[in-house]
Amino acid sequence: MKKIALIAALGIMAAAAYSVQPSSEYPMLKIAPTRQKIWDGVPKMQDLSSRLDYYKPLSKTSDAAVIICPGGSYHHLGMYHEGKDVALWFCSKGISAFVLKYRVSGNGWHHPAMLQDIQRSIMLVRKRANTYGINPQKIGAIGFSAGGHLVLMAAEFSGQDELKKIGVDTGVSLAPNFIIPVYPVVSMQDDIAHVRSRKSLLGNDQSQARKDEFSLEMHADKIKCPVFLIANKDDRTVDWRNSDRMDIAMTRAGVDHIFILGQKGDHGFGMGNNAFVHNTKWNDNLLLPWLQENGFAN
């Protein structure tokens, strides 16, 4: 069932979303993450720096877990307002959280490195569900900007086992059980593509066939889990029509989703200590009820 909600216009200037330093939105939470390099023990991959930062809730009230993919144009990563702060918010709701530091083009990586990293992360969290005290059928992913594209890829390309190609026997499903793309990059088509993300993901091979393959609105029928999608019309970084086309495609494909379209708020607000988050409380007022309705939060 599709719903569309409009966040009231707040008159927030784009600079407001970046006007304060990230973090400290949840100052009472003192959680030190446990870090794990996700490729340990895998031949020819063990020296990679990709890692999961595990944030364990002080009071766990849900058996769900979420893998967090910060944005950064597939070039770098916003590890605070789109990573740590997001993990602390989920922990404040009793949900286990894992921040994924995936490979990016700033370090010389292109596809399939990013998809390998999130598939490996889903595999590890699902296989270790008993250790973490979570339900292996309640593992989701939230991603911001290019990270939003990555979690959409995780859902759409879960049948394309990139791990098997490098000799890893997964033994579990690589599909997330819910995804939350936030102001996501979606399309690689020339009219609305975020050019830097496209270049970072695809490198020099940007044929029309490749653009089509990674334009995720063209493969929405492959999504088999609930989706929470949010964007703002005044987004000056990623054209909001990326989300609009994804919404249209998911509606046509019958994907269970909600699309939150705001009028003002621009890009990059994440869950950081900024005006948009303070004024809308989009995570508390919009995301949390959706998680509760779908059985991923209490």
List the helices and strands and how they pair.
Blueprint: E1 4-5, E2 34-37, E3 51-55, E4 65-69, H1 80-92, E5 96-101, H2 113-127, H3 129-132, E6 139-144, H4 146-156, E7 178-182, H5 195-202, H6 208-213, E8 227-232, H7 241-253, E9 257-262, H8 275-280, H9 282-293
Parallel strand pairs: 1-9, 4-5, 4-6, 6-7, 7-8, 8-9
Antiparallel strand pairs: 2-3, 3-5
Largest sheet: 9 strands, mixed
What is the strand content?
A: 15-25%
CA-based shape = globular
Mean pLDDT: 91
**Helix-residue proportion:** 25-40%
Count of beta strands = 9
SS element count, helices: 9
Specify Rg, calculated over alpha carbons. Answer: 18 Å
Low-confidence stretches: 3-24
Structural class: alpha/beta
State the separation between the terminal residues, measured CA to CA: 21 Å
Strand order within the widest sheet? 1-9-8-7-6-4-5-3-2
Give, in order, the helices and strands.
EEEEHEHHEHEHHEHEHH
